[in-house]
């Protein structure tokens, strides 16, 4: 079995959600004995050390440059997709059983003449139309809002085209999977949860009352979540003398001045830390106060694997399958959100039980390798489905 995995970003090091998911899948495919080739069209070229690490699992790596042009704004194709048009011209010199698209952004690879007869599988990281619409709600700048809204409309158009060309779908979100399956019962689709990245899960000592948030600090929806927490939750939490709020994530060298209007007493910010291990180990509870978003918030799953119980909004745990009061605590209003954190502070045994329940759920339901193996092995040897079959026109 030979598969070409096409990515919009080099998947290693796995230092944020999409990379965690993609890199885990690359390793799973290799461990299952499949020959994996990697094709990446992104902004940043990997270092030699990162390339060597990936070559331990793949047989070949091809890189092509992502090209942004201002005129792409006028295209009906989303800019994130248009900028990866070079995928159409990459010299693909081998035959593959499947091509796995890691997200909508790499759709142009299907126009590569060497891949026109290869079965395509799409990893659905997000409902991109919904995701960009959510980013528009979170953005402050009028120009950014306009850009995100335009991309949302364009991704909705692109999705209709993809349905006619792709027959196999792997959804990271159980919610989006169920919605898709109802609308497209003839498509070969599966809920494939993100891979478990740790052989052994962590466990908080529940000693220091550190509330932790980890997420990309340049993303408007994460920024909105942190601001909501600082405005509505943090001030009253300061009544507990042991409490601290720990924020960590990659800023991509953007300014963090948006934090300055808030009371930052006992707020610790780690901008682009080399490792998150110490931050997780120092935590008592992880919070995911996201107000807007789509797909699965991998930060919630990562926090559980790293030993922290989670208090989240409904958006923050959407698509994970985790159940309120059984695996995590869910609260959308400030009063309930504060009460949930304080409940865990006041009852370490409850915090530990919640964590253990969520970790059992992930071990049982997030067997990425087994689900991926069954999905591909169940596909016909030649599953060329005529255009239109997915949306009921075949």
UniProtKB/TrEMBL annotation:
One of its GO terms (molecular function) is transferase activity. Signal peptide: none annotated. Keywords: Transferase. This is Glycosyltransferase family 4 protein.
